[in-house]
Amino acid sequence: MRYLNKISLLSISTAFAFLACESEKSPFDVSPNDSFDPKRSEQPYPQIAIPEGVDLESPTWKGIDLSPKPPVIPVSANEEKKSFVLKPGYSIDPVLSEPQIKEPAAIQFDGNGRMYVLELRTYMQDIDANGELMPTSRISRWEDKDNDGVYETGVVFLDSLVFPRFIVPFGPNTILSMESNEDHVYKFTDTDGDGKADKKELFASGLGRSGNVEHQTSFLTWAMDNWMYSTYNSKRIRWTADGVIQEPSGNPWGQWGVTQDNYGKLWFQDGAGGVPQGFQFPIAYGNFSVKGQWREGFRTPYSLVKLADFQPGMKEVNPDGSLNNVTGAAGSDVYRGDRLPKELVGQYFYGEPVGRIVRQVNTENEEGLTYIQNAYIESQSEFIQSTDPLFRPVDMATAPDGTMYIVDMYRGIIQEGNWTQDGSYLRTKIQQYQMDDVIGNGRIWRLTYEGMPRNTEKPRMYEETSAELIRHLENPNGWWRDQAQQLMILNQDKSIVPDLEKMAKTSSNELARIHAIWTLEGLNSLDLELVRALFKDANPKIRIAALRASETLYKYGEKSLAEDYKQMALDKDPNVAIQSLFSAFILKIDGVEELMASTMKSNPSKGVELVGTQILEKIAEAKEAASTKFEPAELALFTKGKTIFDSYCSTCHGPKGLGSPAGDGQLIAPAFSGSQRIQGHPEYAVKTLLHGLTGNLEGKEYEGVMIAMDMNDDDYIASVLSYIRNDFGNSASFVSPEYVAQIREETKDREGNYSFEELTSEVPKSLAPQDNWVVTASSTALQGVGSTKDPSYAFGFKGWKTETEQESGMWFQVELPDAHQLAEIQFNSGKDDFPISYTVSTSPNGNNWTEVGSGKGESGVNNLRWKSDDRVRFIRIQAKEKGGKPWAMKNLVLFAR
């Protein structure tokens, strides 16, 4: 394990205090305060200087108190417990804390009830965010083996991470996660049972973002509809037995927190905005604006901490120093357990770590629209309040034991370094209370209610068969239902289909029926006759679930459902009618605009009118945008390619690019949606169309055979490939007729179809950057707050840039641990910072170099290919000319054959 981050005196002394404590003493009694100078509170408090150039009459600063203040002192978990103000009957207790964990930011439970903790150990370790992207964060896993309610047994499942973004349990001893400034989600597995991941596999690409760590993808979440959603991404991804697919969705507007209710409706937690987002309708259908969805007064927090340490400054400070407007929020949970009062079930909870509160949200549905309010607005209170300034609730979750867990980062600074820079209001307040010294802590709390003890049954889902998992769909705790559904889908055991169909039809448990419907959908075993029977069910929630799940059948070719959607739009329940409009819209059925207009006439409810009106607006906007999305030449290829695909390719590959069913859960041909093969190097797809492809693909057999299409001209092949690489949720470069002609010439002597193994051995593959690559450069600039001069940033969104204007001879070099037959590079230099001209050289040993290619730089993506049979370990890109701007590269990709 590597430890490269700043280790605070606080963390060290806390650890020693824990190790030295007597056996009968609870670790939660150990105080982080022990690490501070015992005379600190007796020493003169620091004078706070007014930053240069500050206007004390501005709204941000007017009225600020800059007098010396005693420092904020951290206390033990059991001491912090006394600071909470809870509603009658509730109790809160720590289940895990420092020194075992540090800087916890999120938790997830796997199918055996083990708790994974995302530890962001580099987050704001000083006021300037130094070292924030050092590889010293981790994901740990914890168990309560003696079942006393405390998680005493832990292991570092995944170490040396760069500010990881989420945890998704994904079957036995496996999780999904992604690091900051990266575009790839990886699957990590512990194959030898020692509790530590030792296998890393690419799971999906295209989900990352660059920039400030608060503004990147987070909380990838497997939802009830079997798709995975995250913050920031206007797309959703899905695991299938044939690979990971993706589709576009609305913009979730979330920042740190994704959760769902008992019916699969998603909630996204906005950070700086301080309010929930995306809760009106499923985000898969896009964004819809509902005026007044946050009731009046919702943005007012009721905080008991009065330090005025809020990033917006004095304009958001009450006269007593407390917060007057939500300014930060993190973590969220729709409580779906069974060991807290029933009135909490289905309620949304989230943390406001700036206000040091946990809020409970009441929801009301009026004519198909949702409105939310603080559950305690009348008493001007919150569900949980604390008087401890270090209480930082950043995540919460319904636990396997039926209670609610709350993740408390317990630290001084909760805002990222962009908001604590020199001269800022927030920096001044942090230094006034010396809060930048309080780091390296963290607690996880369990919330309970008197007379309702936690469930002590330990989950053992990984030892259960799919047939045994079915019973959990009737569990009153939504966590058990979700995990069982996910595992049955990962198992892909079709023998349970009859039992699931029976549950969907006849169970007296409404939620079990809905989970059974979605489990059948995830097993590709949802029957059209069953769906149509459920359309007539007396329960509108069942009708809605059947409508949503039926969309998959339509995508795989059951076009007759279009008439069902039109009929269901006449449903008297506005929520059902709205769902039918969504289904018709997202599937682009014939006559969808007429359906919107007629439904609004026949159903006067506010929800139907709003949805119908805004869908018509979206359709009109889409028509206008279609003509401007691509350059004219690209649009011509895309349009022609769509016509070809709809006429010929869709028969085997499905009208929505998901593959056409061949029976027994098999497909005639592989899906295109989200396919890394299709979106990867274009040589793969061009050679496939020119010469055909037979045999299995990555171990999967398909009924159909891809025949050679070389009788068609270069424009034909370029068009269809450009289309499939840029529809069905895909986003990749266009394929030009000239490129097709080049590959056709290079392979003109080929006879017969390719096998998958033969084809992939020829096509350049992108090399995934690894920690053991040695990346150096002649010049490297700092790239943002808290960063280091690290040229390896060139492989991510953050990017690499020279410290000065580019000069002839400047170089960027990569040393690989193993030799490869390198064939191509690709990088993005943005609008202006491209190399004027450059060469690429390779070497087997770092001493003997061979120039393999040269190119002229240009705005945006740059690409250079060469032919060489040499296997090399070193590659160097070198500038040839002087330029007036720095040379920059991001998303650098090395391709090897």
TrEMBL record:
Q: Which residues form the F5/8 type C domain?
A: 761-897
Alphabetical keyword list: Heme, Iron, Metal-binding, Signal
The protein's matches in InterPro entries, at most eight in alphabetical order, are given as: 6-blade_b-propeller_TolB-like, ARM-like, ARM-type_fold, Cyt_c-like_dom, Cyt_c-like_dom_sf, DUF7133, FA58C, Galactose-bd-like_sf
The Cytochrome c domain, residue ranges: 636-728
Gene3D superfamilies in the record: Cytochrome c-like domain, Galactose-binding domain-like, Leucine-rich Repeat Variant, TolB, C-terminal domain
Signal peptide residues on this chain, from the entry's feature table:
1-17
| Source organism, top-level taxon | Bacteria
Single annotated GO MF: electron transfer activity
Q: What is this protein called?
A: Mono/diheme cytochrome c family protein/glucose/arabinose dehydrogenase
Q: Please report the organism this UniProt entry assigns to the protein.
A: Algoriphagus iocasae
- What are the leading ranks of the lineage? Bacteria, Pseudomonadati, Bacteroidota, Cytophagia, Cytophagales
